[in-house]
Amino acid sequence: MTRLGILLSGRGSNFVAIADSIAARRIDAEIAIVISNREEAPGLATARDRRLNAVCIPSKGLDRVVYDQMVMEELKRNDVELVCLAGFLRLLSADFVRSYPAAILNIHPSLLPAFPGLDAQHQALEYGAKVSGCTVHFVDEHLDAGPIILQSTVPVLDDDTVDSLSARILKEEHRVYSEALQLVVSGKFRIAGRRVVRTN
Ligand code: GRF
What are φ and ψ of residue 39, in 5° steps? Predict the structure, then answer.
C-alpha cells in the first residue's frame, strides 16, 4: 500500500476527497501523515478529527531550505512514498523536489499553463475565458509547472462570479485528484518529456 503524505495550508477539501476515496477503495494507498504549515488550517483539524497522523510544522519566519528540510525529515520518518499537495501555499525547494522524483502531485484550479499562481479562478474570469477547469500535475521547482497527469474542464458561464466558478471547478478537483492519484499509485504510466502517458 503506497504511503501518502498530504501537505495543506487551509480548508482541506481536496484532502478530504482523497481520504474518502481511500476509504471507498478507489485509491490503493494509505495516509501516513498530514502536515500543515498553519496551525489554524481547518484541514488540520479535520485530519485530527479523523484520527489521522496530523502535525503542524509552522513555516512562519523560516527560510525555505530550512523549512523544507524539516518537512522532508517528517515525511521520511513516516516512510512517505508519494506527496500530495492539497492547497499547500508554498513553493517547494529544489532539494525537496529532487528527494521525491515524480512522486509529488499538486492540483491547481485552472487549465495549466493558463492562469498559474494565486486566484486562478479570478484570473480566468477577468481574462474572459469561456472554459476553465483544473489540472493535476507532477511538481517541479517552478510554480504550477511540471508534467500534467489529468485535467478536467468546466464551462465559464456569463453570470459566473469567482465563487460560482470556483465551486464548479472544485467539484471536478475532488474527482480528478483521486483519479490521478490512483493512476500514479498503480504505476501504469510513464513520463515522456512533458507528457504523462498511460501504459498497461
Ligand atoms: C484548491 O482550489 C486547489 O486547486 C488549490 O487550492 C485550493 C485548495 O482547496 N491548489 P482545499 O484546501 O483543498 O479545499
Answer: -60, -35
Looking at every residue in the chain, the average pLDDT score rounds to 97
> Is this structure's pTM higher than 0.70?
yes
Which domain-ending residue is among 50, 66, 100?
Answer: 100
Residues 136, 69: one domain? no
**Domains held by the chain: number:** 2
Residues linked to residue 195 through DSSP beta bridges, in sequence order = 148, 192
Cα of 200 to ligand 1 centre, how many Å? Answer: 31
Catalytic residue IDs: 108
Question: Could you identify the residue written with the cell 497527469?
Answer: 149
For residue 163, the model assigns a pLDDT of 98
Amino acid identity at 194: R
User: What residue's CA is closest to ligand 1, atom 1?
Assistant: 87
pLDDT reading at 141 higher than 90: no
Kindly state if the Cβ of 173 falls inside 6 Å of ligand 1: yes
Expressed as residue numbers, the domain containing 75 is 1-100
